[in-house]
């Protein structure tokens, strides 16, 4: 078979295959039927012609016997045979005398030569057996006339059993009489055989070329689904084009999925920018190292690295340069650590290193070494040279934690200590800080569980205008547990340390907005405290605004509170965000005013709408003249800037009188009342778990 023909056969479409298969089996069946019918025809001719010829010969013999019984001579017998030939022109009848008759009555003239030249005549005369000879066009039957007792009366020299002669009958095949029922049965048999052959052929061909490849494909699919093994391939070959395409594309799909699986595994384990392990893989290695160290009773160290002022590099040189700097730093860390050490990029500019089988002293010296190398190194980038420094936190197992969660908390606390110690330093934890670390961990788990169980609830603390009219509410977060409530002061620090403030702020905001939507008659504002992490995520702020608009709340009724500590690191971005949200109607309040180092500068650079005077100043105005002076000047400056002031005090007559006496403007002055729950069916917070009054 040529290559082109082989290719065309192997790539045959299913419809064409079925058509050619049907035509092929039809031709095959017709040939088979033709051959079978020829044999059947020959057998039918043989059987039918013998019977037909015997009957004809018997009739002719009886006719001649009647002539001979009447004493006719040879001429009359010949005339009778000639008349028989004329009566049936398609039949040729000849009679030949045997030796007993020839010896007694003589031979028929002209037959000696014919008889001697025809071996079949001689054979029939010799053995007395019927002879049937058939061809495609003619049937010849030689019928021997055997002498019987009745024949001896005329043929004195014959004895019973002698061959007195033969009758030679020749006639065309077309003259053969065939039964109608036989013809119908043969036709039905041939058609049934044809259909059976066609069905069997189609069945086995379709099974071989279509069903078996598809079955192999489904088996592979089931095996892959059960064992998730993408290395398997369909090996069964088929000559059907559609099955070939299905098999080929399925194998290609497996290759693509295997490639995607590999990439996903890489992405799930590696940081795409630096090629270092990511946080997820770092947690797995840390868990493995804890198990190994526990089993062998060994220690190991963790080093957390946070680049100092990396945001300045991104803002100054652009994020592409910042990315290259991170890549250079990753290469530097890999060069300065052992092959057994695990280096990971936890996110942003944070890195972590696991030092297996390393005690605390060697871990601390390794961190100091890395700090000096970073401080003394200059990163060579395409368009610039960058000097960087980093803060390091060092913790060890089991001294600073006996599990993954505790070690992670210990690293965060150590890094927090390093950042607040002036940066570019290495920080470790002392005994007191380990206690604080466990407290953070415990409270963090308490908060996580409360978020998962939807046990965060909201209280509203009234903000009352000094003459006594309700002005707004501050939204406070509480955790409900065992019919008691835990104040935010008990868990907010843990939320900040563990990065849960965004989720907490979003939950509190949604509950407050839903309260406004459920009480459309109320016209008061809601004050929301936002953590620094939430303010840093402008996308989160926009999601909050979109949620309020979706609930149909006027944005003028929303006030976001920020603190000086949160405003200082990112005053320019915060100023832009305030201006953007002001255009939508949202107001801002500066919380804990007076507790920072540059309080009055914020009034100049931040377009806030409210100033909340830090409560410690207001509480002492009756007994401390210096607090009185500060409160008077804060209120005076704020009011001259057109900013409303809020005194963080509990509502009572004494406070009202003091605020009147010491100069807070009544039209723009407000103070706090007691918190109330947004769930009227629940007891108030004071009845269940009293909170410190502001």
TrEMBL record:
Listed under GO biological process in this entry are: signal transduction
Recorded GO cellular component terms are:
membrane
According to the entry, every stretch annotated as the HAMP domain falls at: 208-262
User: Record keywords: tRNA-binding included?
Assistant: no
Q: Does the keyword Electron transport apply?
A: no
Q: Which Pfam families match?
A: EAL, GGDEF
Give every EAL domain span.
Answer: 440-689
Show the PROSITE patterns listed in the entry.
EAL (PS50883), GGDEF (PS50887), HAMP (PS50885)
Q: Spell out the molecular function terms from Gene Ontology.
A: cyclic-guanylate-specific phosphodiesterase activity
Cofactor(s) recorded for this entry are: Mg(2+)
> Source organism's superkingdom?
Bacteria
Q: Which residues form the GGDEF domain?
A: 298-431
* Residue spans crossing the bilayer: 14-36, 180-204
NCBIfam families in the record, alphabetically?
Answer: GGDEF (TIGR00254)
Among PANTHER family, the record links this protein to: CYCLIC DI-GMP PHOSPHODIESTERASE PDEF, OXYGEN SENSOR PROTEIN DOSP
UniProt name for this protein: EAL domain-containing protein
Native organism? Sedimenticola thiotaurini
């Amino acid at each position: 078979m040529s290559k082109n023909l082989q290719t065309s056969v192997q790539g045959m479409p299913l419809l064409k295959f079925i058509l050619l298969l049907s035509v092929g089996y039809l031709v095959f069946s017709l040939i088979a039927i033709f051959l079978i019918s020829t044999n059947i025809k020959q057998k039918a001719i043989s059987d039918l012609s013998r019977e037909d010829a015997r009957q004809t010969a018997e009739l002719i013999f009886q006719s001649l016997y009647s002539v001979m019984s009447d004493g006719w001579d040879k001429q009359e017998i010949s005339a009778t045979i000639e008349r028989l030939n004329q009566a049936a022109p398609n039949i040729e009848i000849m009679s030949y005398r045997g030796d007993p008759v020839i010896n007694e009555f003589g031979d028929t003239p002209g037959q000696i030569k014919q008889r001697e030249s025809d071996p079949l005549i001689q054979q029939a005369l010799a053995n007395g057996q019927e002879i049937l000879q058939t061809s495609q066009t003619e049937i010849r039957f030689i019928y021997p006339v055997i002498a019987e007792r009745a024949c001896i009366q005329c043929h004195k020299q014959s004895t019973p059993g002698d061959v007195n002669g033969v009758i030679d009958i020749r006639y065309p095949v077309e003259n053969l009489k065939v039964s109608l029922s036989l013809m119908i049965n043969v036709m039905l048999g041939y058609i049934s055989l044809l259909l059976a052959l066609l069905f069997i052929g189609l069945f086995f061909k379709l099974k071989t070329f279509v069903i078996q490849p598809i079955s192999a494909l489904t088996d592979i699919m089931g095996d892959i689904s059960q064992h998730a093994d993408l290395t398997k391939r369909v090996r069964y070959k088929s000559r059907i084009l559609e099955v070939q395409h299905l098999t080929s594309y399925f194998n290609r799909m497996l290759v693509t999925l295997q490639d995607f699986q590999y990439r996903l595994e890489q992405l799930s384990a590696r940081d795409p920018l630096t090629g270092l392990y990511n946080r997820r893989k770092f947690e797995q290695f840390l868990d493995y190292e804890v198990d190994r160290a526990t089993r062998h009773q060994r220690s190991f160290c963790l080093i957390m690295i946070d680049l100092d002022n990396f945001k300045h590099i991104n803002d100054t040189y652009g994020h592409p340069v910042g990315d290259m700097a991170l890549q250079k730093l990753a290469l530097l860390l890999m060069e300065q650590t052992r092959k057994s050490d695990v280096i990971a990029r936890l996110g942003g500019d944070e890195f972590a290193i696991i030092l297996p089988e390393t005690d605390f002293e060697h871990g601390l010296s390794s961190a100091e070494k890395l700090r000096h190398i970073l401080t003394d190194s200059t990163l060579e980038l395409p368009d610039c040279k960058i000097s960087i420094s980093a803060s390091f936190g060092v913790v060890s197992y089991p001294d600073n934690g006996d599990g993954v969660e505790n070690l992670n908390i210990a690293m965060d606390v150590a890094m927090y200590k390093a950042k607040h110690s002036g940066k570019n330093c290495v920080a470790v934890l002392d005994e007191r800080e380990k206690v604080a670390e466990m407290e953070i961990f415990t409270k963090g788990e308490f908060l996580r569980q409360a978020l998962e169980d939807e046990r965060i609830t909201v209280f509203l603390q009234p903000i009352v205008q000094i003459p006594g009219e309700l002005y707004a509410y501050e939204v406070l977060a509480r955790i409900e547990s065992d019919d008691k409530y835990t104040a935010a002061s008990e868990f907010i620090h843990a939320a900040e340390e563990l990065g849960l403030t965004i989720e907490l702020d979003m939950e509190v905001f949604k509950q407050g907005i839903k309260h406004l939507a459920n009480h459309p008659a109320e016209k008061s504002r809601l004050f929301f405290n936002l953590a620094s992490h939430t303010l840093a995520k402008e996308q989160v702020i926009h999601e909050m605004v979109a949620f309020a608009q979706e609930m149909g709340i006027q944005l003028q009724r929303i006030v976001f509170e920020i603190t000086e500590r949160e405003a200082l690191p990112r005053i320019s971005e915060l100023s832009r965000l305030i201006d953007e949200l002001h255009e939508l109607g949202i107001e801002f309040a500066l919380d804990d005013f007076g507790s920072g180092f540059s309080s009055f500068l914020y009034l100049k650079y931040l377009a806030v709408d409210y100033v909340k005077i830090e409560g410690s100043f207001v509480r002492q105005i009756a007994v401390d003249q210096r607090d009185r002076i500060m409160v008077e000047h804060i209120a005076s400056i704020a009011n001259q800037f057109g900013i409303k002031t809020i005194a963080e005090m509990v509502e009572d007559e004494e406070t009202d009188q003091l605020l009147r006496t010491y100069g807070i403007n009544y039209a723009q002055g407000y103070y706090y009342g007691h918190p109330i729950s947004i769930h009227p069916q629940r007891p108030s917070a004071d009845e269940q778990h009293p909170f410190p009054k502001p």
